[in-house]
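Lab meeting minutes (informal)
Scribe: AK
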Amino acid sequence: MADILQLLILGLALGGVFGLMGSGLSLVFGVMRVVNLAHPVLIIGGAYVTYFGWKLLGVDPLIMVPVAGVILAATGVLIYKVFFEKDAQSAKYSDLTVLMAFAVAMIVEGLLGGMFTNTQRVTSPDYATDAIFFGDVFIPTGQLYAGIVSLAIIGGLSLFLKYSHTGYAIRATTQNREAAQLLGVNVQFIGVLSFAIGIGLAGCAGALVSFVFSFFPAKHWEWIAILMSLVVLGGMGSILGTVVGALVLSVLAAFTGAYFGATWSTMVFFVALFLVLLLRPQGLFGEKSEIS
């Protein structure tokens, strides 16, 4: 029983982090219909911002969370203006952005690799290697703090989307872009803002990732399928679905790694992605599209 509880705790703690990693990707798709394959490499960018804040200035990674978020949000505005703003009204916009996002991912990876090499790095505050013990069960403090901060950020985002005027506009644009524009919503501004928020969330996730996982520029290729599986399982564009998917799959991955070996834990995300696309393409919280 202690072993099961232990695995459940570890899975849920990492699930919160994965949920934050995927929520920005889900938001950008929901508003802009951009399948942002560059999202994981921008998470790596946030991790580097945090790493050098810790290494050069001694700033705690948790304090660097908003800093990384703001820096990556500004970077997101630049990326949107240069690569994604053109042809945003095109019927084939989503298809085009897949290739564009892939190109952005390659460019950012090349820049990070050129500046920092592919050496694995990790921030190492004291809590990253500490644990809280309850008898035979322990909670790694690094994963605990990262999970709590991740869920707090996602909760704040949910409140912003639900209760603020701008949040109403974002949700209206997500549901029907043309109708929102007819009702006076500046969908172009909302698109830029949503992209900035989504990439800002990637920066916040990167700050937490910096002490939970080791990272290097090419690491993002390992995360693309994982994050896509979370977003697809929950329903493309559903932040709640992404968080639920992250928690469920992280727990399943923890049990798989314990009983079948660590190399098999990642397979849970790939199998989930395949099964959801095969059996329920709209995901748990998505709406089934109708063909007229």
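Next up, CB showed the second protein from the same session:
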Amino acid sequence: MEHAKHLLKETDNSIQSIAEQIGYLNVISFYRVFKKVQDVPPGEYRNMYRASPDT
């Protein structure tokens, strides 16, 4: 999940692509696990860090 967080913050890769890169065959499974661990969905996580110039 740390690698997924890094990819969300540092790349423009799609969430589908990121899910596949870290080993999820189904993006919905990735989405559910990410949201459970981070308390926000992957797209919202990405937007939070993109909006903050300090990170």
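CB comment: The radius of gyration is 10 Å.
No objections, moving on.
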